[in-house]
Write a structure and sequence with these properties.
Oligomer: single chain
Number of helices: 5
Strand content: 5-15%
CATH superfamily of the domain at 123-182: Photosystem II 12 kDa extrinsic protein
Structural class: alpha/beta
Strand order of the largest sheet: 4-3-5
Helix content: 25-40%
């Protein structure tokens, strides 16, 4: 009986060692007897904050190769007031990213000119066209195009401060534009 138990323990110990559980530091990582290198599995899942005009704003775990549109769907989809035109729905998401879905706004609230030609309120960076941005002092066609391109490449603006990341906008121009812009 003792001999049978000893044989069973020897077989179990042999299989244990063959699977890479050889007592080396790292809990069995390293080279096994089959010559296969074992590496720890990383389970880092990106976490994104979906806010604004979505059914269920909040913080969500999302697959590593996901896109903005998938994050919006994870949050229950856009509301009826959502303006998806200002977002690059195909942009990849990154861990810690905030995806802000803007609301559609009326022409007056979006900074369009009224019948008298005077401006009414700030321009939304999330939905403004290049022509809308050109109406701002100090913004010409090239700079307006770069703002729109940055928005499309990065999935939108979550704050006016991000305009500083657009090439050609420095601290002085940002401060001059700040009162006329909203994310």
């Amino acid at each position: 009986m003792y001999a049978l138990v000893a044989v069973v323990l020897a077989v179990v110990a042999f299989r244990w060692a063959a699977e890479g559980h050889d007592g080396s530091p790292g809990g069995g990582t390293g080279t096994s007897t089959a010559g296969v290198v074992r590496r720890p599995v990383t389970t880092s899942v990106p976490v994104v904050h979906v806010a604004g005009e979505v059914q269920h704003p909040g913080v969500y775990r999302i697959g590593g190769d996901s896109r903005v549109i998938q994050a919006i769907r994870l949050a229950g989809g856009p509301t009826g007031r959502a303006n998806l035109q200002g977002l690059n729905l195909a942009a990849p998401v990154a861990d810690g990213q905030q995806i802000l879905v803007p609301a559609r706004v009326s022409a007056a609230a979006d900074g369009m000119a009224s019948a008298s030609g005077t401006r009414r309120g700030p321009i939304s960076l999330s939905s403004a066209t290049a022509a809308d941005l050109e109406a701002l002092d100090g913004v010409g066609p090239a700079l307006a195009a770069r703002i729109v391109e940055w928005r499309q490449a990065h999935g939108g603006f979550s704050s006016v401060d991000q305009v500083d990341d657009v090439p050609g906008i420095g601290p002085a121009r940002l401060e001059a534009l700040r009162p006329h812009l909203t994310p």
